[in-house]
């Protein structure tokens, strides 16, 4: 069976190094080095306008050479720290979004890993294009916050939006996550008064029960108008190690990073978030 590829994006910062360490520790703890390999990816983003960026054209080769050295140093480090894991590194040039899309199309990775600096509420400073890109990338994305230092995953929560049609719920991806991590899955239904009145909600809930019965999740239903607050409190109470979402343009993913929810996000600051695809 061919090995699955995990793309780990690096910009040589502490947050990206922390994300690399997190996924390596997880592979090592679960002894999955025989079927998972890492592609350490640095995207050298060329400025669209050299003069506008104040960068002389002649400095580009030097900057790229320096980036190559940093990438090789990081590759040497991860090979020394985690010798059982297969890791290769590549520097590509171009627009970050387009280059990552190209890599995903070429490699069909099982996962893309990125590091997030500061607090999740800092992501409010990210523009909507970046949040949308993370939402729409055709591969699962694991966002590892810089405060997340433990790769031990015993409890996983999947915030299931029952407003979505059942074919939009990533059942296969959820099962794969549980297979790899061997964690206990907690399915969280957050309902609002308006949702309770919709007849298809119960139908979708029953489909979830049927599709996931083989992995025997624990089910929780919370009646709350503020979905993000409900999820944050649940994660704190249950000591959840990983939050899974199925990002959509109008849903929990987008709601997480609205400014109104900055206070609730503080409770998630050490929690990795995995964006799954249906």
Protein architecture, described:
With 278 residues, this protein is an alpha/beta fold. It has two domains: 4-145, Rossmann fold, CATH 3.40.50.620; 155-273, Rossmann fold, CATH 3.40.50. Helices cover 40% and strands 22% of the residues. It has eleven helices and ten strands. It has helices at 14-29, 50-53, 60-81, 96-107, 128-136, 171-181, 193-196, 200-212, 227-238, 252-256, 262-265, and strands at 4-9, 36-44, 86-93, 111-116, 141-145, 155-160, 184-191, 218-223, 242-245, 273-275. It has a ten-stranded mixed β-sheet with strand order 3-2-1-4-5-10-9-6-7-8, with helices on both faces. Helix 5 links the parallel strand 4 (111-116) and strand 5. It is elongated and about 65 Å long. The two termini are 23 Å apart. Residues 259-267 have low confidence and may be disordered.
